[in-house]
């Protein structure tokens, strides 16, 4: 090592050597399967323009590293079906675990989605599960043998939670995060941890330790963040289901970018503690609280996981509340299931494909006799949410994070340059004022759900008329690296603590691109101006969006998490049925 080498570079090199050593040689791809232009991890942080629009989703199937049985294991079943196969001893936990570990290794070599492969530990645990089942005739728990991946931030005893920061590398966790213990007690197998952005403050997944995670659908486009590695691994079937976290959209954004499902629950539904974020401990207690939740390939898979976690969460997490999953939180009432269409946040106008796909879903739902669809006016305060959320996320002035970066002379990733800096922590009085503003917004936003209705005795009683809302996840399609805009479309619902999920609809078609036509109308804000740069033919080649996934966001009132699952199921079912009839208006995912 050169005496002039910056400390973070030496740490990153050792960390990458460690990662590589945890991938068996026989699981490594030959060079012919890795697309040209795969930059080194170090170069990938800053040089992104060289990536070609390559789709690598089929490489695991074609490369020859997975045998026919392993392909069947990783592709044939959903979560429920795979669990049934293992419980009936038709598949062993070890052969299932090995298939997914191998596929995760392949996915990583194509996308850099992993940080801490746990393959050796996972296979050992799988053998223990098999022995228990053979000895007792009973599975260890309802998730016996299920291969699960988790975001790098979650502590696993003996393993780093570096979160992509050199200062935190080679400092293994002393104990498991509560959610990790819960998953293990349920019988699951945690096979790997996945990549995230530096500081967790970007909606790409790139850092100086592990490099940039790539989108397997199109390597020119972002995989999203901050749970980007999770989204990629689940999409590539290297894990049956993944656990991410969300404070600004970090579950829903990666789901949108891969065309899969993401579920951000209300605060307290899933244990969140035992994570390393680089921030001041306890900050979330007085600021904005992130939540943990699943990323999956189907809403049914999310159901299987959440019905086991939610009723037990209070026993594991001091940050959790009592809850049940298999009952609706919505009282029975005579009106139909009512979905409100919220077209924008009032500050940023959605680009044409986003407005179009939201309208398509609304039209599909209008055809269902059991569903009412209503257009919602955009509440004026909705546009204020992002600013308040940013204030709460920055209460500590980012001093602790700045100290971690400076300790090894680690530079900021490109997207954070000009956006991240050491600031002055907010005073207690300032924090009071911000939280008071938040309360006023929450009070005003209640009106989006509630209406006054006359009762039989002539009095007036408040009642909820809207069961769920559909809304864009972002006002733009999946963008190129480092160009994600308008986090307010997702962070607002964290500020309000409304459960929100991502539902994929279809692919972007050439007709969606409206080539030769520019957007018109008044620019609403600086954010709106930046958003239009993702559509202006002078600043982007719109063809980059071709075949990328288009999704919508579904939102329900606070603590109505099972109702969110129900709404996502209804909407996804309606969309799939319409596509089956061949009248979706665009290409299927």
From TrEMBL:
Residues reported to bind substrate: 200, 226, 247-250
Domain Amidase: 95-564
Pfam families: Amidase (PF01425)
InterPro entries recorded: Amidase_CS, Amidase_dom, AS_sf
Matching Gene3D superfamilies: Amidase signature (AS) domain
Molecular function terms, GO-annotated: amidase activity
Enzyme nomenclature, EC number: 3.5.1.4
Keywords, in A-Z order: Hydrolase
Matches recorded under SUPFAM superfamilies: Amidase signature (AS) enzymes
Catalytic reaction(s) noted: a monocarboxylic acid amide + H2O = a monocarboxylate + NH4(+)
Active site per the UniProt annotation: 151 (charge relay system), 226 (charge relay system), 250 (acyl-ester intermediate)
Family from the record: Belongs to the amidase family.
Protein name: amidase
């Amino acid at each position: 090592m050169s005496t002039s080498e910056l400390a973070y570079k030496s740490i990153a090199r050792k960390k990458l050597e460690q990662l590589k050593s945890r991938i068996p040689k026989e699981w490594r791809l030959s060079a012919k399967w890795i697309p040209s232009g795969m930059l080194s991890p170090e170069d990938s942080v800053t040089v992104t323009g060289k990536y070609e629009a390559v789709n690598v989703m089929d490489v695991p199937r074609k490369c020859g590293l997975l045998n026919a049985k392993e392909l069947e294991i990783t592709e044939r079943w959903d979560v429920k079906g795979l669990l049934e196969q293992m419980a009936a001893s038709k598949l062993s936990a070890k052969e299932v675990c090995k298939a997914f570990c191998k596929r995760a290794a392949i996915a990583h070599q194509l996308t850099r989605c992993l940080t801490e492969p746990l393959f050796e530990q996972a296979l050992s645990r799988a053998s223990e599960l098999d022995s228990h089942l053979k000895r007792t005739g009973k599975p260890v728990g309802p998730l016996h043998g299920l291969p699960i991946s988790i975001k790098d931030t979650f502590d696993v005893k003996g393993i780093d939670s570096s979160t992509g920061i050199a200062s935190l590398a080679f400092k293994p966790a002393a104990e498991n995060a509560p959610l990790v213990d819960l998953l293990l007690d349920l019988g699951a197998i945690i096979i790997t941890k996945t990549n995230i952005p530096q500081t967790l403050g970007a909606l790409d997944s790139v850092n100086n330790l592990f490099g940039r995670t790539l989108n397997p659908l199109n390597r020119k486009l972002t995989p999203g963040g901050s749970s980007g590695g999770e989204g990629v691994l689940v999409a590539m079937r290297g894990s049956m289901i993944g656990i991410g976290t969300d404070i600004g959209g970090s579950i829903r954004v990666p789901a949108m970018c891969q065309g899969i499902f993401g579920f951000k629950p209300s605060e307290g539904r899933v244990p969140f503690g035992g994570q390393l974020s680089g921030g001041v401990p306890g900050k979330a207690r007085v600021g904005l609280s992130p939540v943990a939740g699943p990323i999956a390939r189907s809403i049914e898979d999310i159901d299987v996981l959440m019905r086991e976690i939610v009723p037990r969460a209070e026993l594991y997490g001091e940050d959790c509340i009592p809850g049940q999953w298999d009952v609706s939180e919505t009282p029975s009432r005579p009106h139909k299931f009512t979905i409100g269409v919220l077209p924008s946040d009032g500050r940023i106008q959605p680009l044409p494909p986003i407005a179009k796909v939201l309208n398509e879903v609304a039209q599909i739902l209008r055809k269902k006799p059991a569903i009412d669809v209503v257009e919602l006016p955009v509440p004026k305060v909705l546009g204020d949410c992002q600013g308040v959320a940013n204030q709460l996320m920055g209460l500590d002035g980012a001093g602790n994070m700045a100290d971690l970066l400076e300790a090894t002379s680690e530079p900021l990733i490109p997207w954070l340059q000009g956006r991240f800096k050491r600031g002055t922590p907010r005073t207690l009085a300032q924090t009071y004022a911000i939280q008071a503003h938040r309360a006023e917004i929450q009070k005003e936003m209640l009106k989006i759900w509630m209406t006054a209705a006359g009762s039989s005795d002539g009095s007036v009683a408040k009642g909820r008329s809207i069961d769920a809302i559909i809304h864009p996840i972002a006002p733009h399609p999946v963008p190129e690296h480092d160009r994600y805009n308008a986090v307010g479309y997702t962070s607002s619902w964290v500020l309000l603590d409304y459960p929100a999920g991502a539902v994929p609809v279809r692919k972007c078609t050439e007709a969606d691109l409206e080539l030769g036509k520019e957007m018109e109308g008044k620019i609403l804000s600086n954010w709106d101006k930046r958003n239009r740069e993702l559509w202006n033919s002078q600043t982007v080649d719109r063809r980059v969006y071709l075949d990328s996934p288009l999704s919508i966001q579904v939102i329900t009132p606070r603590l109505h998490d099972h109702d969110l699952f129900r709404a996502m199921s209804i909407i996804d079912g309606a969309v799939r049925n319409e596509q089956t009839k061949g009248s979706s208006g665009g290409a299927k995912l």
